Each structure stands twice: as structure tokens, then as C-alpha cells.
Amino acid sequence: MIKEKTVPPIPREVEDAVIPSVWETDIPGKSKLAQPVHVELKEGARAVQVKQYPIKPEARVEGPVFVKVPFSLADLVIWKQSAGTYRENPDKMACIVKMVIKTQNPDWDDIQVILDTLMDCTEKEMVLKAAKERAREDTRNGLVTGNLDVNFPIEDPNRDPNLLCNMRKLRKYQQWIQTEVQNAVPKTINWSKLYEVQQEKKES
């Protein structure tokens, strides 16, 4: 799952020294605020090249920062027990998946773990196939940008969640999965409940 991480403020002197916007060429190199340094080399010695690089990305991003947090085994067990069997009660399964997506913000790999935990292989394949068809339709109709492979990857894309474009793609993928968990399995008729309804003699 992807959680927000609190990032402490960057000291001004550090920000001015390493943030790319203060570099003279906007690439790793000389800082606008860097003081010139005079170095005398011994005869025959070669100068050592020193490059300036930015600090970690999460320290430079404005707004919330997202980091990967793995599910616990206890979480998976509780969700499985709460969801029950998919074919018997797809609505209940859909509610659990919706809750997990809303509260845990799972990435591509997390979603595969969720489906593997809650469903058998056939059920998971059915959901993924239906979700991919919905993604294909949305892509064809221009509701999302990019091609189908980008919008509905079959392998972990390992995208940086701190890039807005990647988070949008993840949200859409979550939406397709959630929708097709609800719709992929045909609703079955509970015949036992119907047999419990007995017609009275006076009823026509």
C-alpha cells in the first residue's frame, strides 16, 4: 500500500545549495550561491571532479510524499475472512475490495496480492480480463491518455507514486479493478431462499 510520509522542512541554506532551481544551468553543477574555492595542486597532480547532486526526491517534493508500506499477514487474513467466497457473494467481496482500495491505496503489486488472497486463480483471471476490457474501452473512447499497455499493465510498472501522472494512472487502475470485482461474476439465484416462500391456499 502507499502511505503519505511526513517530510520535515528543508533548511534554507540547504535548499539554496542543492535544489535544482538554484543551479546556474538547471542541471547538476555549479550553484548560484556557491562560493568560489581556490585549490592549489601539487606539481603533476590531477584535479578531482566534484559534482553537486540534489538531495532525496521526497525532500524536494512539495505537498504529500508517498512511500510503499507492505501489507501485514494479519490484514490479509482478516480481509479474507470478511469477504468470504467470491462466487457465493460477489457484492460482499466487492465491498471488501472497495474498502481496502480506499483505505490502503494499493499499488499494482498490492492489488495482485489482494486478488490472490481473496479469490482463486479462475476468479482473479476473470476479474482482470473484465477490467482490461473496460480499460480498452476507456482508452478507445479517449477517456484516458496513452495506450492499453500503459493504462492496464500486465506486469508491475514500478511507477513513482510521487509523480502526479503516475498516481492518476494508479487511481484509474484501482477503479477498473474495483468495478469489475463487482460485475465480473454473474449473480446467482439463491434457490433455497425461493423454496422457503410457500404459497398459501387462498393466494392465486
From TrEMBL:
InterPro entries, from UniProt? Gag_P30 (IPR003036), Retrov_capsid_N (IPR008919), Retroviral_Gag-Pol_poly (IPR050462)
Q: Which GO terms describe its biological process?
A: virion assembly
Q: What residues does the Core shell protein Gag P30 domain cover?
A: 75-204
What domain of life does the native source organism fall in?
Answer: Eukaryota
What is the name of this protein?
Core shell protein Gag P30 domain-containing protein
Annotated source species: Zonotrichia albicollis
